[in-house]
Amino acid sequence: MKDQFVVPARLKTTSYVLLGIGLLTLLIGLFAFSGEHGATRFWAGLLQNSTFFLMVVLASTFFIAATTLAHGGWQIGFRRVPEAIAMAVPALGVILLVLLGFLIFGNKGHVFHWIHPEGDRILEGKAPFLNPSFVSIASVITIGAWIALTMKIRKMSIEEDSWTMTPNLGKSLLWRNSVWCAVFIVVYALSIGSTTPWIWLMSIDAHWFSTMYSWYTFASTWVSGLSLIVLFVIYLKGQGYLTWVNDEHIHDLGKFIFAFSIFWAYLWFSQYMLIWYANMPEETVYFQPRVWGAWRSVFFLNLIINFVFPLLIFMKRSTKRNYTVVTFTAAIVIFGHWLDFYQMVMPGTVGGLHFPWYELGIGLGFVGLIILITGNQLAKAPLAPKNHPYMKESIIHHT
Amino acid sequence: MAVKKFVVGSFDDEAVLFPAVKKVRAAGYRIHDVYTPFPVHGLDHALGLRETSLHTAGFIYGITGTTTALSFMSWIFTTDWPLNIGGKPHFPLPAFIPITFELTVLFSAVGMVMTFMYLCQMAPFVKKHIFHPRQTDDLFVMAIELTEKTRAEEVKAFLDSVGAKEINEQTAETGWWLGRWDREDKLFSKPAEPVNA
């Protein structure tokens, strides 16, 4: 049983190449985008990618927390994978904080209009909430709590490997995991389920508001996070690790992606239909450039690849058990939700539709960073949390 | 349906049942069915049952519902009785989606329940033979169909060797019938032996 992951040279090279592409794109962008308009695209692309990938890796912590609180046993066999992915939260969180510092205090680009509410009645009314000090303090607290709790959950899991188990110690293992996961769930719900997407993303279109927005963002990043987990699990299996994880586990992850793709579409439609029905100018302003403007193709392509595509592919049992199909669909789903964030951020900042070479390049850089961190973290601990009381339940898991 | 002869063995432990199912199949006897008090994981694989096509039926019912809802509403609002509702277009697709969704779910749910009932030969007022009164309580009951090539005594001895607790021979109607349990004597020419025999 190969229990200790060693980062293959090929994975390392891939991650460095992707990281290099990202940095090169950043450098090209710095020189290519001149003037006020260009600077906006430079910063908006960074904001889109850093928020998206931070929330995607954070979804791994949420996966651990939710399954732990539900007393799930099936995921323990590959629990080290989401743990390792979640360890990218500190790095990506710090990147986003630095970026927000530039955007809010450095006044770079024209991303957040609410920084200067003077003369705009609506923005003046929102100023008690949308002002630099509140937004920056909220961001620091949110990201700080995410990093601290993610690292705490990881630390507990590694600590437990060296315990000498007794039945009572098994109980206390479950108890302390449940407590910290419950704390994380509360923090996660209060941040990503309510204010965080408002201040980072919805405030781009500061005149507009939607109460669906946070849930929509959550659904988007959660389904991409699940896809990322399944990609890493299949990669490890392909390398000959995780022999105790089989079709049944992949099948369940596939069901998750299937279900939450539908959940995402449900929120997409709920947000769209209410605004369409009421037809009030202050609300329809968000959909005007997306449905009737230059972004029409991206807007509907987004719906097709994030809803119709996984719905039809993952409907059948055999496709959820076919590793090639699952890998392909998971990769497409991650790209689809990246595109979703793209059409959420760009119409309100850059305006027109461009070929997204810059945004894609930066995105590849983030992918490289995530692969690098996850690979290193996977190598730091055995792949089986051998002292977890539910390990056997995971091995004999049967759907 | 036809009246057939069965040898029925009852097991009180699923750990005994699983190897017994494998041995009975390997010996070439025809298992009519195994009745259990609760769903047993992996028993369908052990029995060699094929994967159900109920979900395919569900998909077909679902798309039938989608098509019905969309075409019916489109026909009404564009051709049959166009109404001006809040200045919306005559083909307001977003407004149709919730109803389309509901009809898709309704068609597939009702259709799948009906198909399931049909496949299991169940319906209100319909009777089916019960091989052992305790098959929904605490016994795992395996019914082996007797063909012209199998002798009852041989099957009984075999079931005994694989660990069955209670073994008897029954003649039963395999399909469903309408009527009353106590008046259908011809279906129970050899009734199930009393539990504590």
Automatic annotation (TrEMBL), chain A:
**Protein's UniProt keywords contain Membrane:** yes
* Domain of life where this protein originates: Bacteria
Q: Where are the transmembrane segments?
A: 16-33, 53-72, 84-105, 129-149, 179-201, 213-236, 256-278, 298-315, 322-340, 360-379
Keywords in alphabetical order = Membrane, Transmembrane, Transmembrane helix
Tell me the protein's name: Quinol:cytochrome C oxidoreductase
TrEMBL record, chain B:
InterPro entries, alphabetized: ActD (IPR021776)
**What sections of the protein cross the membrane?**
59-77, 97-119
The UniProt keywords, alphabetically, are: Membrane, Transmembrane, Transmembrane helix
Q: Which domain of life is it from?
A: Bacteria
The name this protein goes by in its record: Membrane protein
